[in-house]
């Protein structure tokens, strides 16, 4: 990073700046400029490695691409300033960089229409994974609250954004959920919530421990609430009690919830491994 890098139009660029990028006009056949973030400047591919190579001028650049919505789906998008982030990079010739532009997350823009009135301003709030051809939500890591403080601090110090499926976002951004029995953090896959008192418990912390989440449509109540409910039934306070889920017989295999437990487990593992896993040069951390 020792040499300042200038584009042909005079713009000085540095790592993490956003740029328009395209091959020369005849090769690119009229397609619009691509937008990318500069991840690193690189010497020629045949430059010697190590100290000696440091005297070579940068001729290449590693770019993190953004997609335009029309690149990834047929869904019409009227907003030409909306991009999709991606965890996808390529090394390009530095001469393909045309000019600087600006790309920020939607949540960092207080006045979106003002932002869009200025030239060369783009924004994103979703990420496209080109390997599995799927879109994810991108939220500032600050917004993730349902994590133990230690993990949350590391997450925020390392990553600007968290990438997750839409269905996971409400769990991630809820206030931190602690087990009412052991006071430990309750990651969603290992957690049941009492239907009546709304408190959370680890599935292993209730008696008897739950082997699987209750099937969809069946509520679960904690022991104190169940006792209270039974007393109410006994005293005829409730004439039409809601059905309680059938208890699994001890030597039968535990019923499996319908809620994709295998995937949930891998989510828990990822969350637990959070402090040691990270991607170099990327602001995004996949969740789930
Ligand atoms: Zn617990
Ligand atoms: Zn309860």
Automatic annotation (TrEMBL):
GO terms for cellular component: Lid2 complex. Residues 233-270 are annotated as: Disordered. Coiled coil: none annotated. The keyword Zinc-finger applies. It comes from the Eukaryota. GO terms for molecular function: chromatin binding; ubiquitin-protein transferase activity; zinc ion binding. The keyword 4Fe-4S does not apply. PROSITE patterns: BAH, ZF_PHD_2. GO terms for biological process: histone catabolic process. Residues 11-139 form the BAH domain. Keywords: Metal-binding, Zinc, Zinc-finger. This is Predicted protein. It comes from Laccaria bicolor (strain S238N-H82 / ATCC MYA-4686).
């Amino acid at each position: 990073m020792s040499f300042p890098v200038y584009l042909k139009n005079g713009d000085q660029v540095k790592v993490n700046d956003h740029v328009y990028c395209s091959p020369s006009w005849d090769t690119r056949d009229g397609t619009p400029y691509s937008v990318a973030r500069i991840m690193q400047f690189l010497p020629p591919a045949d430059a010697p490695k190590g100290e000696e190579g440091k005297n070579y001028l940068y001729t290449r650049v590693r770019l993190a691409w953004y997609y335009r919505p029309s690149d990834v789906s047929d869904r019409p998008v009227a907003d030409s300033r909306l991009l999709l982030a991606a965890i996808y990079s390529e090394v390009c010739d530095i001469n393909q960089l045309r000019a600087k532009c600006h790309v920020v997350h939607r949540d960092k823009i207080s006045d979106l229409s003002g932002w869009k009135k200025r030239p060369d301003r783009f924004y994103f709030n979703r990420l496209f994974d080109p390997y599995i051809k799927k879109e994810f939500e991108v939220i500032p890591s600050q917004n993730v609250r349902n994590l133990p403080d230690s993990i949350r601090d590391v997450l925020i110090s390392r990553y600007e954004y968290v990438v997750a499926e839409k269905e996971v976002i409400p769990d991630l951004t809820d206030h931190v959920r602690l087990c009412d029995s052991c006071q430990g953090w309750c990651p969603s896959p290992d957690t049941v919530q009492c239907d009546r008192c709304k408190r959370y418990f680890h599935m292993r912390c209730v008696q008897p421990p739950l082997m699987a989440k209750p099937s969809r449509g069946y509520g679960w109540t904690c022991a104190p609430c169940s006792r209270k409910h039974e007393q109410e039934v006994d005293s005829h306070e409730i004439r039409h009690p809601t059905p309680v889920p059938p208890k699994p017989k001890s030597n039968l295999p535990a019923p499996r919830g319908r809620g994709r437990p295998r995937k949930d487990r891998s989510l828990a593992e990822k969350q637990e491994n959070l402090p040691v896993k990270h991607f170099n040069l990327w602001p995004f951390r996949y969740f789930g």
